[in-house]
Amino acid sequence: MTKKTRRPGPKAGRVAKPLRRSATAGRPAARARRKYVYFFGGGKADGDRTMKDLLGGKGSGLAEMTNAGLPVPPGFTISTDACTLYYREGGKVPASVDAEMTDNLRKLEKAAGARLGDVGNPLLVSVRSGAKFSMPGMMDTILNLGLNDETVEGLKRRTNNGRFAFDSYRRFIQMYGSVVLEIPKDAFERVFEAVKEETGAHLDTHLDEPALRDVVARYKEVVRAKTGRAFPQDPLAQLRGARDAVFRSWNNARAIEYRRIYEIPDSIGTAVNVQMMVFGNTGERSATGVGFTRNPANGAKEFYGEFLVNAQGEDVVAGIRTPQPISELEQVMPQAYRELRRITSRLEKHYKDVQDFEFTIQDDRLFMLQTRNGKRTGYAAVVIATDFVAEKLITPKEAVLQVDPESVSQLLAPVFDPKAWNALPVTTKGLPASPGAASGQVVFTADHAVEWTRQGRKVILVRKETVPDDIHGMFVAQGVLTATGGMTSHAAVVGRQMGKPSVVGAGALEISEASRTLRVDGRTVKEGEYLSFDGLTGEVKLGEVATRPSEILQVIAGEMKPAGSDIYQRFERLLAWADRFRRLGIRANADQPDQAETAYAFGARGIGLCRTEHMFFGEGRIPIVQRMILAEDEGERRRALNELLPLQRADFHGVFKAMHGTPVTIRTIDPPLHEFLPKREDLMVEIATLEAKGESGAGLEEKRRLLRRVEQLHEFNPMLGHRGVRLGITYPEITEMQTRAIIEAACELAKEGTKVVPEIMIPLVGHVKELRDQKAVVDRVAAEVMKEQGVKVKYLVGTMIEVPRGAITADEIATEAQFFSFGTNDLTQLAFGFSRDDIGKFLGAYQDKKILDRDPFATIDTVGVGELVETGVRKGRAARPDLKIGICGEHGGDPSSIHFFAKAGLDYVSASPYRIPVARLAAAQAALQVKVGD
Ligand code: ADP
Ligand code: MG
Ligand code: MG
User: Fold this and answer.
1) What is the pLDDT of residue 32?
2) How far apart are CA 784 and CA 792, in angstroms?
3) What is the pLDDT of residues 798-829, one digit of tens each?
């Protein structure tokens, strides 16, 4: 039973067996020799949309579009399996795979009617990376491969366009130089800028053939100077070099960082797509662009995108020139525009999802270069899914599966307080790339963003343009603001995906990274000054602006009517669909009536963990709690407890009421008592100060007494010390008081006409006799209270399973417990022996060294801790078939953990109030058996 949850080792697994099988299924001939290269072209492809594992997202999309008869330049995909082999062989593609590639190259040459390296009619190709999960801009792509000093002249003769030929060649040398030969990009950029300056050209497109010939000559010099060799002239050698470089780019630093953030396995590798070039840079009748079938920022149903006339693909996404909105394409090239609309709506219907596409128009002829399901903000995800259902494009079930659970949590992000926001003038405006309110201190580099955030500051990352290397800084910043780039630039795409408020292309910003200043609107802003922007409108303002709850939170808090908020209604609709499909119950971890109300409004139907000690911190209570702790004898302790009793009873009454009769699990006191006392060091300082002042008397004596008790209670390892059930065993009067408060509150509610079934939960039980001891106390007091009140209420007594011994002896414990709740925080702590408060010191190293992929306190370790959970469930239910089982650790709000709990057969998960919507959606996806996050 443990096998199914065990994951394969990091390098071995995912690519190896399962995929191969799918690739050759039903094709006995292929079984003899495995296939590594998949052709597409002439209306037919070897692959299709189901083969993302093997062909990557890009390769599978190209195959699918080819099969659908769309205009896709022909080519072939070298599979991710080949990438695995490349690494296994220490950075070499095996000869047999290389031969398969050259076979496919011949096929491509036939389809294209041109040959690689043929001076009379040269074939040019792009060599494109593409993994299963899209990683925008993280890996490398090379265009115009096949050009050399001779073929460039051939291209010129054939097209009668020298400018175009040399523009293509200079692009190729630059890309090949930086990607394959690893020459820093700025070495080329300096040359390019110099030539532009010498010839007085403002735009790249203003350079004529002689100027571009000059660029090419100087680029070749750069290559010779940096590598000691001439630029490679043999096209087949170029192809091999580019292919291997793309495989290598899987392991560049930014790709690794991206995978870490998005939890993409390192083992799956990238495919390489080799595709005939089509040219958007042949002149004014050519263009290149990217787009979305819906607005990816706010979900609006509009054709959305950008293009550049006389350019190649990289120019649009790199944010070098600010592109034109796609609506203008209708005027410039109406026929191609109409065809693009037709094709992309068809693709949206076909994939039943928003498509993010790339296209190139060569001399008025449209070619599709990529399609994939578009990344979108959480806001857009909810709008689009609900619209799709309304349009009958998908069913509610498909809608539930389409939305990433984290999206609904993005909808809860704060917005600006309109009063404070409107009080400031608009300093400038950029493109609204990703919605949300962002306010913080300006920093100009990703490294500073990380550093400052570590120091507890909130920062806005301001960049001329963001490059993929900035991803770590984007991740921690409150928001990202750039001076260049369009809605589909890297900053925009990544910002949306992260749910990070972003404004891009704010052209009025003059940013100087060197002097760490930014000039805008006649003012200079230095690093550390405050700036705010609204990612939904693109407005940027200087200064700090207070934020306030999102519309959804306002509705939840009753400050806004549901009918007044479109997004709230959509949110509710989606979650109501989710509730139809999920099997897991959803409860909340809440200690106060107001939290309980919020949780209920978010859809929690029950409380899975009410931490009674949090109530002890309530106003005016700490002195009473301290008196209880300091008591010299039982009598004194009971007097203090009697004072706490009415307060706790009122708390429970409030929580029960807020939950409208749904189950409420109340845990008896858990933390070590010294947590309620002042710190030893503080007391010592206070006493020393009093003594130095020569004071004496009751005040000083009291402090000394407190210090003595603090020292008595001092533990070397409080987490493993006198806490949890151990407190109840040594001081049964605490359990008595808490039981009394709970049952009295339940009786009161019963008299008021509300039926509640309290679930009293004993923490940290590892031995059945511990539970038996406490259960006897609970049952005795409950019987007493009911007799006094003349009311009978139903209640359950159960336990947390959070000590490994508790899980292992769950069958014994279940003879006493009516329910289990897995406390996966402590269970993780005790299973690994990692202190949850100290893991920060070494988790980073563990992740860098790939010992752990994820923080086990955030996402459950299914192999080890999960095994304890499964054991607990199995043994517990064997002893008591109707045992109710839930989980109340932080993992209860984590989608992939929820998936595991659903599989483990739990009855419910309990999450913090704000995670309830995420949990509802994740639980539905789990029930529909989809791998969460896939
Ligand atoms: P990324 O994954 O970073 O988007 P791509 O492989 O999609 O990289 O390529 C980058 C750009 O190059 C794209 O905008 C695409 O339009 C362009 N491009 C790629 N292959 C070709 C081709 N065969 N012909 C013309 N343009 C291409
Ligand atoms: Mg692309
Ligand atoms: Mg615990």
Assistant:
1) 54
2) 11
3) 999 999 999 999 999 999 999 999 999 999 99
Q: Are 719 and 829 in contact, with CB atoms under 8 Å apart?
A: yes
Torsion of CA 258, 260, 263, 269, to 10 degrees: 70
**Per-residue buried b or exposed e for 815-849, using 16+ beta carbons within 10 Å of the residue's own CB:** ebbbbbbbbbebbbbbbbebebeebeeebeeeeee
Residue ranges for the chain with pLDDT beneath 50: 1-31, 930-934
Of the residues 472, 747, 888, 899, only one is catalytic, namely 888
Cα-Cα-Cα-Cα dihedral sign, residues 584, 585, 589, 594:
positive
Distance 553 CA to ligand 1 centre (A): 42
Ligand 1 atom 8, closest CA: 141
479-482 and 502-504: which strand pairing?
A: parallel
Are the CB atoms for 799 and 667 separated by under 8 Å? no
DSSP category for residue 598 = H
* Alpha-carbon span 319 to 297, nearest angstrom: 18
| DSSP H or E segment with residue 601 | helix 593-601
User: Is 83 among the catalytic positions?
Assistant: no
Structure tokens at 931: 């791998």
Instruction: Give one DSSP letter per residue of 192-236, joined into a string.
Output: HHHHHHHHT-SSGGG--HHHHHHHHHHHHHHHHHHHSSPPP--HH
Other C-beta atoms within 10 Å of 262: how many? 12
Distance 142 CA to ligand 1 centre (A): 8
φ/ψ of 611, rounded to 5, equals -90, 105
Stated length of the chain: 934
Ligand 2 midpoint to CA 101 (Å): 22
Rg (CA), the chain: 32
Q: What's the gap in Å between 723 CA and the centre of ligand 3?
A: 10
Burial 56-89 (b: 16+ CB within 10 A, else e): bbbbbbbbbbbbbebebbbbbbbbbbbbbbbbee
List pocket residues of ligand 1, CB cut-off 6 Å.
Answer: 73, 126, 128, 137, 141, 143, 275-278, 288, 313-314, 317, 358, 360, 369-370
- Which of 58, 108, 143, 467 for mutating ligand 1's site (highest number of atoms within 8 Å of CB)? 143
H or E segment and range at residue 307: strand 304-309
Q: What is the pLDDT of residue 718?
A: 85
CA-278 nearest atom, ligand 1: 24
- Residue 888 designated active-site: yes
d(CA 375, CA 497): 6
Assigned token pair, 801: 């399973």
Distance CA 566, CA 571 (A): 9
759 touches 606 (CB < 8 A)? no
Tens of pLDDT, residue by residue over 701-729, are 888 888 988 888 888 888 899 999 999 99
